[in-house]
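hey can u check if this looks right to u? its 160 residues, i copy pasted from the old doc so theres a chance i mangled smth
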Amino acid sequence: MKLQFGLKKITQSLLALLLIISLGGCETFVESTKDIVSALPDLPPSVDNTPLEPNWVQVTGYAPISLQEGQSQQHKMLMAMKASKLDAYRELTALVHGQYVAGTTSVKDMILQNNQFQGAVAGIVRGARVVKSYPVQTDVYATILEIDLNQVQRAWQASQ
C-alpha cells in the first residue's frame, strides 16, 4: 500500500513538472510572437473606400433632320438621331478629355490676311447613358447624355 501511495505521489509530481515545463514553453512562444509582430514595418495607410455621391454632368448633341441623306422623312429622322448621339458623345469626350485646338493667323502690312483654327477631340468614354432623345421644333434632333465624373475618375485611377 505504501508502495502504491509512493508511486502515485511520484506520478503526480512528474505530471506537475511536465505541466510547468509545457506552460513555460507557451509563454516563450507568446513573447517571441510579440517580438516578431513589433518588428514588422508599419502598414501603409488604408485607402479610403467611402463611396462618393455621383457627380452627374449632362451634354446635348444636335443634328439637322432635313440635311440628312435618306429616302424618306423617317429615314432622315433616324440618321439625325444617330448623328445627334455622336455629337453628344463628341461633346462628352471634350468635357472628359479636353479639346485640342490648333490655329494660324497671318498678318500682312498690319492687315489680317488669314485666320484659321481647328478643334479635335479624342478619347474613350465609358459609362455614359442616354437620358433623352427628342426632336426640337421641326427640323432638329437632340440627344442628351450623362455621365458620373466620379466614376470616370475612379476608372482613370484604376488604370494608372
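The chain has a mean pLDDT of 84.
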